[in-house]
């Protein structure tokens, strides 16, 4: 049942594999041809500005650039009435009473009855 491994013979013939071929350098990349000149620094597109790009296989693709007005700043959580203040959330007295008297379900009622108040104009939003 026990078989012995074959004996080591240093005179065994070498393999017939040849060395790998020498390194062949890659050809240089194709020359770069830049497209049309970019718009000048400070270019502000108007409402009807259209930029057309040319792709050699697909044809002209229209790209419409929408202007961005610098005066419009959107503040997340900002007051919709005065657009200056920030809305802070406060719990109402009835909501706190519901949370106290009807404990497990009352907490959900308390969270649903929060009101938002503007820090600038004092407007209340429910």
Automatic annotation (TrEMBL):
Q: Does the keyword Membrane apply?
A: yes
Q: Name one GO cellular component term.
A: perinuclear region of cytoplasm
Pfam families referenced in this protein's UniProt entry, alphabetically: BRI3 (PF10164)
Q: Which residues form a coiled coil?
A: none
**Subcellular location per the Swiss-Prot or TrEMBL entry:** Cytoplasm, Perinuclear region; Lysosome membrane
Stretches for region Disordered: 1-41
Q: Which residues cross the membrane?
A: 93-113
Q: Tell me which UniProt keywords the record has, alphabetically.
A: Cytoplasm, Lysosome, Membrane, Transmembrane, Transmembrane helix
Q: Membrane: present as a keyword of the record?
A: yes
Where is it mostly found? cytoplasm
Highest rank taxon of the organism: Eukaryota
Q: Which membrane topology describes this protein?
A: Multi-pass membrane protein
Pro residues composition-biased segments: 1-10, 18-41
Protein family membership: Belongs to the BRI3 family.
Concerning PANTHER family, the annotation shows: BRAIN PROTEIN I3, MEMBRANE PROTEIN BRI3
Q: How the protein assembles, per its UniProt entry?
A: Interacts with BRI3BP. Interacts with MGAT1 and IFITM3.
Name used for this protein in its record: Membrane protein BRI3
Q: Which organism is it from?
A: Meganyctiphanes norvegica
């Amino acid at each position: 049942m026990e078989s012995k491994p074959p004996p080591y013979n240093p005179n065994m013939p070498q393999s017939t594999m040849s060395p790998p071929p020498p390194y062949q350098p890659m050809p240089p990349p194709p020359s770069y041809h830049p497209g049309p000149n970019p718009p000048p620094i400070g270019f502000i597109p108007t409402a009807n500005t259209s930029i057309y790009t040319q792709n050699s296989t697909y044809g002209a693709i229209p790209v419409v650039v929408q202007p961005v007005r610098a005066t419009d700043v959107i503040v997340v959580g900002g007051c919709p009435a005065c657009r200056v203040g920030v809305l802070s959330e406060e719990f109402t007295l009835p909501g706190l009473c519901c949370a106290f008297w009807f404990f497990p379900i009352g907490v959900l009622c308390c969270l649903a009855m929060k009101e938002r108040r503007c820090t600038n104009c004092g407007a209340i939003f429910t």
